[in-house]
Amino acid sequence: MLEHIPVLLILAPLLAAFLVTGLAWIQSAYCLPLALAGLLGSLLASIAALHQVMAQGALSYEMASWPPPVGIELRIDLFNSLVLVVVSAVSLINLVASWEFIKREFEDRKETFLALYLLFVTGLLGVTATADLFNLYVLLEITSLSAYALIAMGPSSRAPLASLHYVYLGVIGASFYLLGVGYLYIMTGSLNMGDIASLLPAIWSSQTVLVGFVFCLVGVWIKMAFFPMHIWLPNAYTYASMTASRVLAPLMTKVMVYVMIRLMLTVFGAQYIFRVLDLGPVIVWLAVLAIVAGAVMALVQRNLVKMLCYIIVSEIGYMVGGAWMGNQAGMTGSILHLINDALMTFAVFLAAGNFAFKLGELRLENLRDLFARMPLSSAGFVLAGMSIVGIPPTCGFFSKWYLISGGLQAGQHAYVAALLLSSLINAILFMRVVEYAYFGEVRTGHGHHGGHAHGGEMDEAPVAMVACLLLVVASLVLVGLYSESIVSGMIQPFLVRSFV
Amino acid sequence: MKRIGLIVVILCGAVLLYATRDFPAWGDPASPASTHVSPHYIEHALQETEVPNLVTAVLADYRSYDTMFETLVIFGAGVACFLLLRSFGARRREGWYVRHIPTGVVIHFRKRPRIPHSRFFERLDTEWVPHDLIIMTICRILLPFIQLFSLYVVAHGDFSPGGGFQGGVMFGASLVLMAISFDLRTALSRVGERILALLAFLGVVLYGGIGVLCMLLGGEFLDYSELAKILPVHAEEARALGMIGVEVGVGIAVTAVMAVIYVNIASAGRHDEGL
């Protein structure tokens, strides 16, 4: 069975999605255990894949036993095995943490929601594991389609409209990507990433290849909400159901960053990207813009979730900038930050979800007295915030370190300055939340007597939610402590062929 | 904003045109697209899969993994429609409408009427729909032929243009036609919501199941040649049979999803008389 691991990690949630839709009409009590089993299966398979890749190098799986350019190949190497583990772990933990939410928000259609959730995860895993450009597009469609529906189901009456905006931009992004793939197919006659990579050097000077590349890139940028193509993201994730945004926010954009780096390094090659094209400086400037704009827009938000959404926009800027720096440190930082940011965003959204479970809408003013009422969730939130700001024992610090050293090596001082500025703004943002949550009463001066004792009664979110949050926060510190071995054991061996 | 949009569109068009200067000539037999991978399909598909229709061979065998997810896109669309639109809550009614079928007369009752259960009366919803004998009769005659033809398209996908998607859409269209010409409730009384959901499930499970079966028999996922171990045929023919199997799965799933989408959109999820 071991040789089937690459496909098993996709099939586990997929078959679970099928069975959940079927069982929903027969015996709906089995749906949740089945969904959990599917996600757990895919987590175990991804860990096994990671283990095998570490031991014996990249795994290749020839779908239907047709060899690569003729058939479809799944290929798992050091880079995507890491992403696969993160995707499957985050989606599993989120389902455990959010089950109370799902029960509350979708009483009569929990099973359908579960099926779409599983389809979404299947799509993400498929996008990450595939080595075929067209297959990537198909799975991207699965992911986006289920994401549109998950967002539109949000409790807010603005959710359908936010989802509709996302549909428009998502479809445009997918079309750009598909056009790009079409152009590459015209010039190479192949869809397999490795095969295209071996055919491209002969036609590096072709304008069609250039336009194909740019179109793929723009498509992926729209999907990852790279400024100024981010406009769909804040509303979509804010008005979606918390269950959905907790999985969408950490994973969707990060997997698209993964796709961008995969296109850059595996399909087109660092040689073409940085030597032949030399687009790097322009795109790093775009990233600087994204970082600053995201941070500034986060500063003016009064809604906690929306503020976090703009932080994501800014983080996307970090990763794009690092990847286009054109040196190994920048790319290492970008990949490490991809992993870290998935976990950090997940942690803050888990905490925000816990708050929302008790408080409803998360306007900053509603957060008063939160430390007394939900001490564990608030502590988790603060630690996750520290990681986003980049305070040493947490993982955010280490990836920012690599990003900054990459920026200094490349002489991109504007990028370094933007990164430091946005970290500073992040610190202000989280301090402001803490101020409301801890000192809320002092600031407003509502000195109602006994109010503290009344509002200060502990009213923590359900155990599963808090436990999951603490688990993820602990992983932030763990990943931080082990980031040295992640970099030297996985990221650098992966990058070694690209940057010589 | 509109102007910026226009400029962006023109720019994109210009970039696309700029890229065409490097294109291989139209229909050039020496272009990469027709010399790299496609010759393999053209030269070997018939021996390797025993399916004369190359398009089917590429879709359902060489790239069957893609096609499985294409089916899933449709399946997902059906699930999404159901999730977003279906409303189970009881609706406040303004009286009850009952139609006397032989005369087409509609009677309005304030309270729930006591009408003997017979084929002469049917309950209507507050959105009244005209009742046309000619349309109903013509559609009743047409329906079996449409369905028969769609089954032919599914079954003959290996040899001629056609396949699961096309056949499934036609069969689904026949259900939609029934819902339009009679009414939604009539169509749903023939093929209920639960049956549609189970059909959609059955279709995708048939596809995925064949793939998993191949894996259990010792091959790669969706490697139909492994089916030769349990079927009395040789490996190439097993591939053809596997393709028919997945095409049938696609057909069933697409039929059901077409109907689910129509039913939910037409009645805004209430499953009453609809359009």
Strand order within the widest sheet of chain B? 2-1-3
Amount of helix of chain B: 55-70%
Query: Largest interface, by Cβ-Cβ below 8 angstroms: which chains and how many residues each?
Result: A-B, 62 and 57 residues
Average pLDDT of chain A, to the nearest integer? 89
**Kindly state the mean pLDDT of chain B as a whole number?**
85
What does this structure look like?
The complex is a heterodimer of chains A (500) and B (275). Chain A contains 20 helices and two strands. With 500 residues, chain A is an all-alpha fold. Chain A has a domain at 279-500. Chain A has a two-stranded antiparallel sheet with strand order 1-2. In chain A, helix 13 (328-359) runs antiparallel to helix 15 (375-389) and helix 16 packs across helix 19. Chain A is globular and about 70 Å long. In chain A, 63% of the residues are buried. Residues 442-454 of chain A have low confidence and may be disordered. Chain B is mainly α and 275 residues long. Chain B has a domain at 46-86 and 130-266. Helix content of chain B is 62%, strand content 5%. In chain B, strands 2-1-3 form a three-stranded antiparallel beta sheet, with no helix packed on it. In chain B, helix 3 packs across helix 4, helix 5 runs parallel beside helix 10 (235-266) and helix 7 (164-181) packs across helix 8. The relative contact order of chain B is 0.14. The mean pLDDT of chain B is 85. The interface between A and B is large, with 62 and 57 residues.
Q: Could you give a quick summary of the protein structure above?
A:
The complex is a heterodimer of chains A (500) and B (275). Chain A is mainly α and 500 residues long. Chain A has a domain at 279-500.
